[in-house]
Specification:
The protein is α/β, with parallel strands linked by helices. The protein is about 45% helix and about 20% strand. It contains 22 helices and 23 strands.
Length: about 675
């Protein structure tokens, strides 16, 4: 006997479209069941209350919330039954969900051909009666709320209605649980996203702090860099100008003496260890709240906030010098360093930050001239010299703009042939109102006040242009070289090689005829950078002279590694007393022999007598320059000297003098 009833309209939307296939319906049903996440979930007393209530209302021994999976039916709640799941193929519920909008009632399963062979009918639990209402969610029957018994039974309409109400309550619970679970997942996901965002914000803040630190601090010592020092000093100066601000503080400049020698002897890595340790010691030596910065290679700047008197500054300088002078462990040995210290104070008047730094630098340079571990405080006497230095800077800058400088060209003579081999371009300054200036004086002043870089650039451009003019205007078959001096400040610049290459291209001169003269001291200030720059210049075809050789401190190993072509013996080793051959003949012989061993050419500077010329020729010196041959001459006379011998110089000079008289 089989009974089915119409399903209550409240539990469903509308029946599935007749064009849907059974497979499509089944796939949608299983997808809905998976989405609700009810299968294999834990025990829930609210479902148990419903099944217990349904068993009581319907008067049955069993009541079940059954969910029909792909190959099984699983019981969310099972009142009166000890099973949790059975096979789908032999279940009443799998039949009930086939007509999702009707209730399936089987009054006696043994009399129903569809069910009488089911194991659950023929054996334990021996079901005879079954009534099930499909559980509809999102238009799909996911299971049933059913009652069952081991004896035949018939339900009244009110009982069946209550079973339908119970089914709706079950669906509501299932969907409510699914919604809560989804909300919980969303909350967890949101919390995860918020946590990730917080971490991203923190990470970005850390990156920004690192970038800010990198922009404002020295990478090696992790002390403030020059820009950061200047910014903080500007703030202090501004505060000092206010009535309530600190009226006095002191700025100090600290330079490690002969630091380049440490780099050259022990290597760059050891030099870095020395700088790190020196920076740490200075920080420990000054007071808390004072400012310490590393602003360039071996240079540190400090601000002593509560230091107003010269005596206090001098005492602070002594403490700094003492802390630097202590042995510095670099791992393999101890290194000893000394410091020159200069101070400038705002005790008497508030001045601009740049002026304070310049004054402290000037005092530090003054300290270096008076030995090692010396401190100087900028005072009235130094102020006068500082003003003179600034005046010279202004005059040099103005002179460069007004074309007050010129080059003269001193011939370099081949000793074997007595013929002009090339020229050295020398700078001269006829200062209006003061007359010709000593090159030693104004070049030294330019080195101190920074004008040597633009002056050196001008000299290089002029010399290259002159040589190009000689090559084109008079069609020279002989091709002399042009030597130009390069300052340490120019060589320290990382773009110096690019600057030279650009000038060569702009002037159109042959780079193989250009020789750049550098000193040992300039090279050793930053050996690695100098070697890199010199290699780049030589790749352009430019020759390199090591000038004033013998006055510096380059080791033989370093000399071997330098990319140079020629040694220039300093004039101090050439000049001797009246009637003397050479000032230091043994040393000159050693230098010439060393150069030959290294495959280098040799030029002697400052040759003034025939005795010196003869001695140098005998020792194998290749070339020489000096007043014996000629002082520096103007461009026109230099052109006439090209390819001539020394003996021709007098005739050339006489011819020019005669031409002037005729004119």
């Amino acid at each position: 006997m089989k009974t089915t009833t119409d399903f209550d309209a409240d539990q469903s939307a509308s029946p599935p479209s007749i064009i849907q296939t059974a497979l499509e319906i089944e796939l949608e049903r299983l997808a809905t069941l998976r989405r609700l996440e009810i299968l294999d979930s834990g025990a829930d007393s609210q479902f148990d209350v419903i099944t217990e209530l349904m068993a009581g209302i319907c008067g049955t021994g069993m009541a079940i919330v059954s969910l029909v999976d792909e190959n099984r039916q699983w019981f969310k709640s099972h009142h009166g039954l000890d099973l949790t799941e059975t096979e789908r193929s032999t279940s009443f519920c799998s039949v009930a969900i086939e007509r999702p909008y009707e209730a399936l009632v089987v009054e006696d399963a043994r009399l129903d051909e569809r069910f009488r062979e089911y194991a659950c009918v023929k054996s334990t639990p021996g079901i005879r009666f079954y009534a099930g209402v499909p559980l509809i969610s999102s238009g799909s029957a996911i299971g049933t709320l059913c009652v069952a018994d081991t004896v035949p039974k018939r339900l009244g309409q009110s009982q069946l209605d209550m079973l339908r109400v119970g089914a709706k309550a079950v669906v509501s619970l299932i969907e409510q649980r699914a919604t809560i679970a989804e909300l919980e997942r969303a909350a967890v996901q949101r919390a995860r996203v918020e946590a990730e965002l917080r971490e991203q914000v923190k990470a970005r803040a850390r990156i920004e702090r690192r970038l800010q630190f990198s922009a404002t601090h020295d990478r090696l010592t992790r002390l403030p860099n020059r820009d950061e020092f200047k910014r903080r000093l500007d703030d202090l100066v501004t505060a000092a100008e206010d009535d309530d601000g600190p009226r006095g503080f002191t700025v100090g400049a600290i330079d490690i003496n002969q630091f380049q020698l440490i780099n050259a002897t022990f290597g760059r890595q050891s030099g870095d260890l020395v700088l790190i340790e020196v920076g740490r010691r200075i920080v420990e030596t000054v007071n808390e709240g004072d400012l310490v910065a590393r602003t360039s290679g071996d240079r540190f700047l400090v601000v002593l906030r509560n230091c107003r008197a010269d005596a206090e500054a001098a005492a602070a300088g002594a403490r700094i010098s003492e802390c630097v002078a202590r042995p510095i462990d670099i791992g393999t040995t101890d290194v000893y360093a000394t410091a020159s210290v200069g101070f400038a104070s705002t005790a008497t008047r508030a001045v601009a930050a740049d002026e304070l730094i310049s004054q402290a630098d000037f005092a530090m340079i003054e300290a270096k001239h008076h030995g090692r571990s010396v401190t100087r405080v900028f005072d009235e006497r130094l102020g006068q010299r500082f003003a003179s230095n600034m005046e010279m800077h202004t005059a040099l800058n103005s002179g460069l703009k007004l074309n007050e400088f010129k080059l003269v060209y001193q011939p370099i003579i081949s000793l074997a042939e007595g013929r002009v081999d090339g020229f050295e371009a020398l700078m001269r300054w006829n200062r209006p109102g003061s007359g010709p200036q000593s090159p030693e004086d104004f070049i030294a002043a330019a080195e101190r006040n920074g004008m040597i870089v633009p002056l050196g650039r001008w000299a290089l451009r002029e010399a290259c242009s002159a040589l190009r003019r000689w090559q084109t205007e008079i069609g020279m078959t002989l091709d002399p070289s042009m030597s130009v001096n390069v300052s340490a400040s120019q060589l320290r610049s990382r773009d110096f090689g690019v600057t030279v290459e650009r000038l060569v291209l702009e002037t159109g001169m042959n780079p193989r005829r250009l020789t750049l003269e550098i000193t040992e001291t300039a090279v050793m200030e930053n050996l690695s950078l100098a070697i890199e720059t010199l290699h780049g210049l030589r790749r352009l075809g430019i020759r390199i002279d090591l000038d004033d050789f013998g006055t510096g401190y380059s080791s033989l190993t370093r000399l071997r590694d330098l990319p140079i072509d020629r040694l220039k013996i300093d004039r101090n080793f050439i000049s001797g007393g009246p009637g003397a051959r050479l000032g230091d003949e043994r040393l000159v012989r050693m230098i010439i022999s060393l150069a030959h061993e290294l495959g280098l050419e040799v030029v002697a500077e400052g040759v003034e007598t025939e005795l010196q010329r003869a001695a140098l020729t005998a020792l194998g010196c290749g070339a020489a320059q000096g007043y014996l041959f000629s002082a520096g001459v103007d461009e026109a006379l230099a052109r006439e000297m090209v390819g001539r011998t020394v003996e021709d110089f007098d005739r050339i000079a006489a011819s020019r003098a005669s031409s002037k008289k005729i004119a």
